[in-house]
What we know:
Oligomer: single chain
Low-confidence stretches: 1-29, 32-54, 417-461
Radius of gyration: 25 Å
Amino acid sequence: MRLYKYYIALLMTMLVACSEGGSLEENIPDNIPVELGAYASKYSDTRAGGILGNNDLASIAQNGGFGVYSYFMHTQEFMNNQQVTAVTRDIEGGGKEIVGWTYSPMKYWPNNPSSTLDFFAYAPYARPAANETSGIISVDDANHIPIVSYQLDQYGKNVDLMWGTNGDTSGAKNVFTDMAKPSVNQKVEFKFKHTLAKIGGAALNGNDTGGLTIQLDVDNNGNITGGKKPASMKVTVSKIVIKVLGTKDALDANTIDRELPIKGDFNLTTGVWSNYTRNNITLFYPVQTITKTGLESNAHGKLNSNIVEPGVGTAVSWEDIPEGVTVTAQNVFGEEFTQMLLLPGDEKYPVIKAEIDYVVRTKDEDLELGYTEITHHITKEAVIPAFPQMAKRYNLRLHIGVGTIKFDASGADDWNLGQGTFYFDKTSQTERPGPGIEEDNPSGDDLKYLSKKDNSLWFEW
């Protein structure tokens, strides 16, 4: 998978004269103005807010920029939730190009080489109201330790909270501290990292086969996979809902803890979550196409046009019906509005439930419509075989057939870098005889672990 890195550079060419005592009020010789910069990024400015494509830098720019806390000699405020916004220009063919970053008022580096500054950043920028109930609900720096308090929204209207680091991959020092006056044009570059865990989602780029995907399984001489889809069959999807029901202490545990961690505090100096609040709540993440009355208010995204259901009972010609779900996996998203997120750090296995409405059509020219159509609604629970971790994405693949549905809940890949995706590859899976499953009445047995490969689990029901 191609590696993407998104850097936001805070170019501090600042000059402030300070005595050994560390005063900020002395004369400032040869003032050098603060310049804000970032590696250029192009994005399509198609709507206000939300996520534009899979470009983290563009998402930050579109959603108000980022916030910076800075301290002089660790103890004196230098920047307090300073908003930094993108400067853009229109580009030929539509969209915008980021050409710089700006903030006000201008600041300058201390001139004394023994005087230092610390910098901590988060995105997107927020100045939440006192009664905020989801997303970034507060930002504070009591005792010069900036803390972002965050709460998940029950219906998935979540903010993708990101943390500004120095890009150190060793983990020894992730943030900018004890920064002395740099040479002219030297940059302090924030590399933003996702702070939450992500479930499924749209593809990160054209080569990404992870996220929330769907695949058709066709019986192959009694085996549950391996068959070919007949040309006379089309399977389209009208609705997918993913629910997070709770957690389990072990993969094979019989009981579900219905209390989910939905609120926590993120420390910008350490990159650590703490002070969790747990509630007995179900998280909903619906993906649905536009209906006759418009998109449902809680819709998490639009379905991929290749699989979307055109409407049961409508006079649609066979040729105008999308190709639909095939034996090759496809991402379910045509457009992702908000992301399926979990708070990391909880050493329990998330329990998820998939609900799918889909239509199976078989071509028959002797019928008035020219085909038969049967609507299916199938649900099933599964367990993600990993603890939610910061900046990790957990891939989900929905396998559907006529009256059956299977579910792959895989291990994590690196959400930030978009590489190392682990997902179930059934080409390496030993075929097993499929059970007799009645339509809309899956087996009453609990999950059956058919195999475990590449830290992925194959679930059957």
